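Our preliminary data section would be incomplete without showing what the modeling component actually yields. Below, a chain of 112 amino acids is followed by its predicted structure, encoded as tokens that our downstream tools consume directly.
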Amino acid sequence: MACSWIEVKNKVYAFPSGDVSHPDCDAIYAELKRLEGLMREAGCVPDTGSVFHDVEEDEKTNMVCSHSEKLAIAFGLISTPSRTRLLITKNLRICDILPSSSYQRSHAGKFL
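Predicted structure:
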């Protein structure tokens, strides 16, 4: 299972892909939704080409947007002051959408 980790205020938080167990789950997914909106306004859309499940396009987009590294980044954005450097550790290869996450980071007013 894909999992990413982030350290915030000397505590390490783990985020498996699609995680909904974190106490701040609602805020994390709200941040992801906000960032997705900013990206769409800028002309970027999630690349669902790597999703091979037989599901509707909206579900593929949800799957791509809940990758573990995106959850960790969203948590970092809502849990740290502006311009805080985030370090994300991942147990698998970085997915093709990470540049989109970097783009999200720069548009959120912070550096990746």
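Residues 3-42+57-107 form one domain. Confidence is low (pLDDT under 50) at residues 97-112. Preliminary results of this kind motivate Aim 1 of the renewal.
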